[in-house]
Amino acid sequence: MPHDDDVLKAGAAGAARLTRRRLLARSLAGSLAAPIAAPLVSGPLAGCATEVARPQASASAGAPADATTPPRFRVAFGSCAKQSKPQPIWRAIGEARPDLFVFLGDNLYADARDEATLRQRYAEFMAVEPLQAFRRSTPHLAIWDDHDFGDDDEGADYPLKQLSQQLFCDAWGEPADSPRRRADGIYTSQVFEAFGRRIQVILPDLRFNRTMLTTDPSLKSSYAAMVLRAKLSGQPMTGWYVPDPRPEATILGEAQWQWLEAQLRVPADVRLIGSSVQFAAEGSGWECWANFPRERARLIELIRTTGAQGVVFLSGDMHYAELSSVEVDGGYPLWDATSSGLTEVWDIPTPNRNRRSAVMAEVNFGIVDIEPVTEGEDDLRLRLALCDVNGKAKATKDLLLSDLRRHAKEKTA
Ligand SMILES: [Fe+2]
Known about the structure:
By secondary structure, the protein is α/β, with parallel strands linked by helices. It contains 11 helices and 15 strands. It starts with a helix and ends in a 13-residue tail after the last strand. Fe (ii) ion binds next to helix 6.
């Protein structure tokens, strides 16, 4: 997101212990990237492999496990952590005792146009002790967004992207032979098993292959005045990007599309797609899938045609938190829980036609709790929560897996 600081100034304990230790070992060995079991997908479509981890279900966060504690798999997530700022939020996230944390990008702010700066920013990131201590104690996966890919709103044309790919993989502990080091992007996926169910986390790379964004020059040139006006009026303010309808405009690139289709065909009950920019939101004028309407429609159609059930998006980038959803013709609603602002906060209202919650303009992180509805029943509850720096949930939404399964054979006319 193209906000700069100047403008901003203006304007499951016991039961989970083995699991956490196992996952942490994997995490320290390489961001959960080294194989636990044979990859489910191999060959040229694999790109970055899907693997299976088999954690036991966790107990309620922060509470001692006992025989009466219901099983649960807790995924926490967040984005946008500036390495030069204090990061007290890691304490609250740690106290939530997630089974997995997903870093959704802008995990540091490199904002680099030269090699020395890029290397220096990654060194600064590795020296942020609260964040690194959290990484040592909590299993995690990571994807990048623009600022840790390289610079504000960058895409395929970023000149240092190959170096950035290696620095990312070094910082996140990817082994020397990791596919993430040599693929056309750092996309990755992993399946976790909990209480006999399969939870897949898919992390597409939205930067490495992304076509340059289309800008409305009049909006960009009057940006400072717009910020001031929005600050004074409290009225929503759009960003300066407009949709690019051209067939050749892409976010993922064709190889990654083939990989993603293969991932959506991997057996799983729940699929969390970690998208570094918002998927469901429309009308913000900032970076989001809606800026590439053909790509967004292609993913919606791919979810429908693969029959992938239980898809929920987790997203970042916006410097605030909110819940959005988009209705799908011939399919089930696609929910998108945006958590952005591990340190960064944007307090000017932004349009979003698909917003389903209040906007949380404060430091935040997100949680998805996945748990059986009733013992012996097939259904699962997905509880989305957006939490503040003290771990207090400010927005929540309960979804049932049974409501995330509908696929019509044919779309309605
Ligand atoms: Fe971003």
